[in-house]
Specification:
It contains 15 helices and 14 strands. By secondary structure, it is an alpha/beta fold. The chain has two domains: 14-211 and 395-423, Glycogen Phosphorylase B (Rossmann fold, 3-Layer(aba) Sandwich); 221-393, 3-Layer(aba) Sandwich (Rossmann fold). It has an eight-stranded mixed β-sheet with strand order 3-4-2-1-5-6-7-8, with helices on both faces. Helix 2 runs parallel beside helix 3, helix 4 (151-157) packs antiparallel against helix 5 and helix 8 crosses helix 13 (362-374).
Length: 424
C-alpha cells in the first residue's frame, strides 16, 4: 500500500487571484496568472480568478466577449470570473484612468462569491491591486500583491500623453494597494527601492521572478525561415510582444531605414502598431506579423538571427519585459537597446545571453546586429547561455515553487498573528 501524498500548507485552501489579464491572452502577464491559478487549482481546495475581458496586446476586446458584462467560466480547473471594463484603443493618461476606474468599479461591485483563504493580486493593474486589497480586508485574510510593473514610475517614464500629471495619482493607488499587504512579491530586485518608496517595509518584500511560460523550439530552423519568406543570407532582427509607448520601437523603424540589407520584423500587437506602420511606410525590409500561435511561437523566435528588446531611454525601474524569458528559451542572442542602469539591462547581463547598446540609438543597434549576424559562433554561445539560464533559474517548476513558498509564508504569518492576538 503506497503512502499518501504529504499535505502542504496550501492543501485545503481557497485562493483568489486578481489579475486584469488572463487566458486566452498569450503575452504579457496573462500567461503567468493563468499558469499560477491552474497550478493552485490542482494543488489546493479551490482557485478562483477575478479578471477582465481578454484584450491584450491588441487593446481590443476579443470578439466573443464583446457586449458581455459578467460571466463565470471554468478553465483548467479554475473558476474564472470576468467583469466588463473599458478598453482604450489609444493610450493617454485619461483613457488609462477610465480603464482602471471601470476595472475597479466592477471588481468591487461584483466580487466572486465565497470567502477566500488568501488573495493574490497581479499588478500592474492599479485597480486590480486595490480590489485585491479590499477583498482581503473585507474577509480578514492574507493579501499578497505581486508587482510586475510600477505604474507610478511607468506614467512618468513611458511617454504616455499626460503621464506626468498621472504619476502621483498612480503612485497613491499603488501605495494603498501595497501598504497593508501581508507580503509583497516583486519580479525583479530592481523594483525593491520603488516599492520601499511607497512605504513598504523591506522585511515584507520577496523576489519572485517570472518563469518561462513557453516550450523550447522544436521545428527545423531553415524550414521555419523558408515558410516565413526569410532568405537564408539575410540577417533577421525580430521584436516580439507589445507595441506600446514604453517599448520605443521607433528605433527599429529607424534601423530598417539605415540598413536595407537587414530584415526587421515586428511580431505582435499594441496601441502603437498603427503609428509604427505609418512611420515605416515605404520600407520593404520591415514586416509586421500578428502574434504567433502558442505552438509556433518559439519556433519563430528561433528562426531569427537576433532578438531585440527595446525601451525608451527614460524607462529605468518600472518594468522588466516578460518577453525576455521567451527570448532566452529560444536559444537566439538578444540585443537590448535599453538604459544601462535599469532592471532589463541587469537581467540581460545576468543571463549572459545578449549585448547592451544605448537606447534610442539605431546606429549602435545596427552595429551589434550586424556583428552577431556575421559571427555565428558568438551568436550561438550567447543563445546557449540564455537557454542554460532558463534551465537553471527560470523553469516553470522553480517559479511556481517560489509562489507556493510566498503564499505559505503569508498564511503562516496570518496564523501567527492570530495566535498572538488570542494570547493577548
Amino acid at each position: 500500500m503506497s503512502a499518501a501524498a504529504p499535505r502542504t500548507p496550501l492543501h485545503d485552501r481557497r485562493i483568489l487571484v486578481v489579475s486584469t489579464n488572463y487566458a486566452p491572452e498569450l503575452t504579457g502577464i496573462g500567461p503567468y496568472a493563468t499558469q499560477l491559478a491552474e497550478h493552485w487549482a490542482a494543488t489546493t481546495a479551490r482557485a478562483d480568478v477575478l479578471t477582465g475581458m481578454p484584450h491584450y496586446p491588441s487593446w481590443r476586446t476579443d470578439e466573443e466577449y464583446r457586449g458581455v458584462w459578467r460571466t463565470t467560466e471554468h478553465r483548467g480547473g479554475v473558476h474564472v470570473h470576468r467583469r466588463r471594463h473599458y478598453v482604450p484603443p489609444r493610450q493617454t493618461a485619461l483613457r488609462r484612468g477610465l480603464f482602471e476606474l471601470t476595472v475597479l468599479g466592477h471588481g468591487l461591485l461584483a466580487p466572486p462569491p465565497g470567502r477566500p483563504d488568501a488573495v493574490v493580486a497581479q499588478m500592474p493593474s492599479l485597480a486590480g491591486g486595490v480590489v485585491g486589497a479590499r477583498i482581503a480586508r473585507r474577509h480578514g485574510v492574507p493579501y499578497v500583491p505581486v508587482v510586475q510593473d510600477l505604474m507610478g514610475a511607468a506614467a512618468a517614464q513611458s511617454g504616455i500623453r499626460g503621464g506626468g500629471r498621472a504619476a502621483s495619482a498612480a503612485a497613491a493607488a499603488e501605495r494603498y494597494a501595497l501598504r497593508d499587504a501581508t507580503l509583497v512579491g516583486v519580479i525583479h530586485e530592481s523594483f525593491v527601492p520603488g516599492v520601499m518608496a511607497l512605504g513598504v517595509d523591506p522585511a515584507r518584500i520577496r523576489t519572485v521572478p517570472n518563469w518561462t511560460h513557453v516550450q523550447g523550439p522544436a521545428a527545423d530552423r531553415a524550414a521555419t525561415r523558408a515558410r516565413l519568406g526569410w532568405q537564408p543570407d539575410t540577417p533577421v532582427l525580430l521584436h516580439s510582444g507589445n507595441m506600446g509607448l514604453k517599448q520605443g520601437l521607433d528605433v527599429l523603424v529607424d534601423l530598417a531605414r539605415l540598413a536595407p540589407d537587414v530584415r526587421v520584423v515586428l511580431m505582435g500587437d499594441g496601441n502603437q502598431r498603427g503609428a509604427l506602420r505609418a512611420r515605416s511606410a515605404g520600407l520593404a525590409n520591415l514586416d509586421f506579423l500578428p502574434p504567433a500561435a502558442a505552438e509556433d511561437f518559439t519556433d519563430v523566435l528561433a528562426a531569427a538571427d537576433v532578438l531585440a528588446v527595446t525601451q525608451r531611454a527614460s524607462v529605468l525601474d518600472m518594468s522588466v519585459p516578460s518577453k525576455l524569458t521567451s527570448y532566452f528559451v529560444s536559444g537566439r542572442p538578444v540585443v537590448a537597446s535599453v538604459a544601462e542602469g535599469g532592471g532589463t539591462a541587469e537581467e540581460v547581463r545576468r543571463s549572459g545571453a545578449g549585448v547592451l547598446v544605448p537606447p534610442e540609438d539605431p546606429a549602435a543597434l545596427l552595429v551589434a546586429v550586424r556583428e552577431l549576424a556575421a559571427d555565428h559562433a558568438a551568436a550561438g554561445r550567447l543563445g546557449a547561455r540564455g537557454a542554460a539560464y532558463v534551465a537553471q533559474h527560470l523553469s516553470r517548476e522553480a517559479g511556481l515553487a517560489r509562489f507556493d513558498a510566498l503564499l505559505a509564508e503569508a498564511l503562516d504569518n496570518a496564523r501567527g498573528n492570530a495566535r498572538g492576538s488570542a494570547r493577548r
